[in-house]
Design goal:
Elements: H1 2-35, H2 37-61, H3 64-73, H4 77-107, H5 109-112, H6 120-140, H7 145-149, H8 153-177, H9 184-207, H10 220-245, H11 247-254, H12 257-293, H13 297-333, H14 339-368, H15 373-396, H16 401-427, H17 436-458, H18 465-486, H19 490-508
Helix pairs in contact: 1-2, 1-8, 1-12, 2-4, 2-6, 2-10, 2-12, 3-4, 3-12, 4-6, 6-9, 8-9, 10-15, 11-12, 12-13, 12-14, 13-14, 13-17, 13-18, 14-16, 14-17, 15-16, 17-18
Length: 509
């Protein structure tokens, strides 16, 4: 039953990701052409500022779903209600307070960053909507607990698919009917957040009808407990921001808005690849949390390794294909831009995700085991080192945005290859080298897929969407074969063949 549920969750999550990717694929060049790359760069920068604001809310929310899920599976609904109510009411208070600094940032935005005067009002409107969306999402995000705690992520994926189509409908309607403005992106995001909240409420009532917000359940001790545990997530987030979350801001201040726009375009597809990694990895989070709640370490480790393999399987195929066919893709996708520079920046950014494809599943263990302190300090230290090196290179070299993008990639790779797998093993009380055989096979498979993709890309002599699609199909097939033999062991390959035969047999029944 669990295998069937896992397959449904993975399939629905990937479909949701592909729909989102497809929509961004179509909309991004249209928006860049309509409002300009400088204006488009401020969309990514606004989202980065939201990530800075999340430092304030993260301490409370980082482990909220973990604690609630564990209480539910311990069959302690009163305890689950206390955590749920305490988080929701505390989020309402925090969001109300944050209205003041958000308003000040929007009013004096041109004093903080470089904004061309001709798009100042548009950028202010965009940021107002983005911040409002953030505040509403802060209050409502905890209601997503129902699909997580019951391991029904297929429902949340369906909701994401619906919201993505809603977003594209709103954007196309606004851009076609009215004069183009960049702040339409903010309107679309805000409406989609409200839609997701309504569906989350529906799923909570359907799947966890006993979970309610009642003032009598509020307990300040729980808020303090969550903040005390979550403060390490804040430190981790700060380190991540220093590592790569300041890229657009540094480029805006130390170079110019045009360079920021180029970097934003270059980071669009790699960010989508990171979205794929997160999408697949998150499918396993509910079951990993359940195994931990049931004190079943052996099952947890087996599930974790399965998550690493499946996440890596999808990631290195997407990553390798993009690297190999990047020049063709960007020439067709954003013609007229500096394709060579965009491709270089894209590859640099993707390199940071090469190891991330298999490592990302490990990050959740810090939250699940509530052992965040050491990881937080390491990430913060790497973030400080990253930012320091970037500033030194900007002052002493002519690397420009190559330094901004490149340093974060290198520091990320070093941390993920050295610290993360060893410390996760320690958190689970298993041998420190437990994950390295799998990581080694994944890297070997990834490098081989990239090599094959480069070979296929070099055969494309005339850029066209048809040649790109054909090349992508061959890259995908090659990636499947390489992963089949290098990433999975003999037993897993046998089980995979057995599953395929069962599916084929059912199709003929």
């Amino acid at each position: 039953m669990y295998t069937k549920r896992l397959l449904i969750n993975i399939t629905s999550s990937i479909v949701s990701f592909l729909v989102s990717m497809g929509i961004n694929f179509v909309l991004t060049p249209y928006i860049v052409e309509t409002v300009g790359k400088e204006a488009y760069g401020f969309v990514g920068l606004a989202n980065n500022f939201v990530s800075y604001a999340q430092l304030i809310t993260l301490a409370l929310n980082a482990l909220a779903i973990r604690f609630i899920t564990i209480k539910i599976h311990e069959e302690d609904m009163e305890g689950a209600n206390q955590y749920f109510t305490s988080v929701v009411l505390a989020n309402i208070f925090i969001s109300t307070v944050l209205i003041i600094p958000a308003t000040m940032i929007i009013i004096w935005i041109n004093q903080l960053i470089k904004v061309p005067i001709d798009i100042l009002k548009d950028v202010q409107m965009l940021w107002a909507l983005v911040f409002l969306n953030f505040l509403i999402n802060t209050v409502t995000s905890t209601f997503s607990i129902a699909t997580f705690a019951t391991n029904r992520l297929d429902l949340s994926s369906l909701r994401s698919i619906e919201s993505n189509f809603l977003r594209v409908g709103i954007l196309l309607g606004l851009f076609i009917i009215f004069e183009p403005h960049i702040w339409y992106l903010g309107i679309a995001s805000l409406i989609c957040t409200l839609f997701i909240f309504v569906t989350d409420m529906h799923y909570k009532k359907k799947l966890l009808s006993g979970l309610k917000v009642k003032v009598k359940y509020f307990d300040f001790k729980i808020v303090r407990e969550l903040v005390k545990s979550g403060i390490w997530s804040v430190i981790t987030k700060l380190g991540q921001i220093l590592s790569d979350g300041l890229d657009l801001l540094i480029t805006n201040i130390f170079i110019d808005p045009t360079a920021m726009g180029v970097l934003a375009i270059a980071k669009t597809v790699p960010t989508a690849v990171m979205g794929l990694i997160m999408t697949v990895s998150n499918v396993f989070s509910p079951q990993l949390t359940i195994h931990y709640a049931q004190d079943n370490t052996k099952a947890l480790v087996e599930e974790l390794k399965r998550a690493m393999k499946i996440s890596g399987f999808f990631t290195n195929i997407a990553l390798g294909t993009l690297i190999g066919l990047g020049m063709t893709f960007y020439t067709l996708w954003v013609p007229g831009e500096n394709i060579g520079l965009i491709q270089i920046l894209s590859i640099i950014t993707l390199c940071a995700h090469l190891v991330g494809g298999v490592i990302n599943s490990l990050f959740g263990i810090f939250n699940i085991t509530n052992k965040l302190k050491v990881n937080s300090y390491v990430i913060l230290g790497m973030g400080i080192l990253n930012t320091t090196i970037v500033f030194i290179l900007l002052e002493t070299t002519s690397l420009g945005i190559l330094a901004v993008a490149g340093v974060s990639a290198i520091t990320s790779i070093i941390k993920n290859l050295t610290f993360t797998p060893i410390y996760v093993a320690k958190c689970l009380s298993i041998p420190k080298d437990s994950f390295y055989p799998l990581i080694t096979r994944y890297i070997a498979a990834s490098l081989m897929i990239i090599g094959v993709a480069y070979g296929i890309g070099s055969t494309i002599s005339q850029y066209s969407w048809i040649s790109l699609i054909i090349g992508g199909i061959f890259c995908g097939l090659a990636g499947i074969v390489v992963n089949y033999f290098l990433l999975f062991n003999k037993d897993e390959r046998s089980q995979g063949i057995k599953k395929v035969k069962e599916i084929i047999r059912k199709q003929h029944v």
